[in-house]
C-alpha cells in the first residue's frame, strides 16, 4: 500500500454574518464516543489501555481510537488546543479555550439503568451550564488567578458549540425495536435534541456546528449482530435497516437545523453531512488508500469482521474455554474501523479532510479561510 501526503489549500473569506469564519476563541463539544476525549473513562473510573491511543499519543489517550478523533483534527485546523474532558480533574486541565462534555455511549434521550453512559445530551448541557457559572464565579472572585485556565464571559457567546450525538439512540433501539418502531421514535429523539439546542442558545451560544450520524449499518458491531442474514445487507455488506434509520434521522435533523436557524436569525447553524463522507469512504475505500472497509483492526476472530461483542479492544478474556486477547492489527492505517464501533485515526483524518472542503456542509463554507491538512491517499 502506498501512502501519499498532500497539502490541501482552501482559500476562504467571510461573506455574511452566517458564514463560518473558524476564528473562534473557544469550543464547547457535546456528544458520544465519536468525540469523547476522556469523559466516560474519568466519569465511570474505567480503564482504557493500549492499544487505544497507540499511534499519535503512544499511550492510552482515553479515546476509543488508535489515535486522534475527528474533533482533534478540527481543533488543530482551527488553531485551538485539544479539548480537555469536563470530568477529568487530573493533569491540571486547562479550559481557557473550551471544554469537552462528550462521553462515550451517550444518547440524546435521557439515560436509563441499562445505558452505557449516564451522561445524556441534556445532562451534558447541565454540566456546561454549571461549568460556565462556576468558571465565571471564580474569575470574578479571584482576580487574575484563573485567567489562564478558564474562559471569560465573551468566549461563551463567541465560541463554537459542536454537537455529534444520536448514533447510540438509533443503534441501541434496534436491540428491542423493529425498524418501523425505530423510525417512529426519531421525532421524539429530535424534540429532545431541539430542546437542548435552545438551552445552549439561552446560555449565550450562537455558533452551532452539528454533525449528522454516520452509516451505522457499516459498523462491524451491527453487522455481526444484525447481518447474519445476507439478504439484510446492502451491496457494500452493511446492514440496510440501520442505514435506513440513519438516513431518516439525518433528514429530520437537517430540517431541524434549518428551522432553528430561521427561528434564531442571530445564530449561525452549520449542518455537516458525516453520513455522506463516511459512506463515500466505505464505498471507495481502495481509492483512498485503505484495504479493509468493514473489518475491525483491533479485535478477535479474524476475517471477515474480526469482532466479538464479548470482548473489547485490548482486553484478555476466556471465550469458549480459550484465553484470547483482542489485539491490534499490524497497520491500522489500512483499516477504516478500529474496534468494531469506532473509526481509526487514518479514517478520522480522512473524514476531517472532507469536512474541511466545506462541500458537505449546509451552508457550505468552501470559500472562507485557508486550511492545511495532510491527507492519506
From TrEMBL:
Transmembrane segments: none annotated. Residues 1-19 form the signal peptide. Pfam families: Lipase_GDSL (PF00657). It comes from the Eukaryota. The keyword Glycoprotein applies. Keywords: Glycoprotein, Hydrolase, Signal. GO terms for molecular function: hydrolase activity, acting on ester bonds. Belongs to the 'GDSL' lipolytic enzyme family. This is GDSL-motif lipase/hydrolase family protein.
